[in-house]
């Protein structure tokens, strides 16, 4: 579901082998080449572009909030796929630190957008939503990304894993470590409630024009970092846009 096939700035749907190789290498300048996915045909180097998406599409009453600001002056919404290498790299290089640095200053919301090309993306989304039923969404969100290589990658480190049994076993371990009722967690993962929540997120993402992951909106406008080459440039572009919105 990628928008533009650019070998430097491409979203997932990319060549899975290429992107995963980049992620595993964990060299920032190389990683950024595989995951700075905002260079699109016809776009300019603006940090946000296009018309704003209606707030009621991007945020629902049951949307998960990682950090919130009392005035909701700046709202960041990320549509993500837990098995997406680009999403994991954005988490490691940008959003995990943004969550800490802007705690209490911005409202940061995450929503599900599992891609068909990632076979464990939906089970991971189910795990996050099942944890949410017991009040531990944020903790499971971090556990899934912090342990990405353990469940999301195949043993060769070059491809996404298709081993759902292994992944589910690890998800159970994370649930236990978080103090969840593991039996309830397992039941909720496959419940109509959890699956309806994921489907609703995907439907809203499609209404918002999401075609790949990660896709981030800042106050309703899709974030477009332009032709950035490093995570420092990405951070500068993102934080610059957030600061601009904070000072309006």
TrEMBL record:
SUPFAM superfamilies: Thioredoxin-like. Keywords: Disulfide bond, Isomerase, Membrane, Oxidoreductase, Redox-active center, Signal, Transmembrane, Transmembrane helix. Residues 39-240 form the Thioredoxin domain. InterPro entries: Thioredoxin-like_fold (IPR012336), Thioredoxin-like_sf (IPR036249), Thioredoxin_domain (IPR013766). The keyword Transmembrane helix applies. The chain crosses the membrane at residues 18-38. GO terms for molecular function: isomerase activity; oxidoreductase activity. Belongs to the thioredoxin family. DsbA subfamily. This is Protein-disulfide isomerase. It comes from Saccharopolyspora shandongensis.
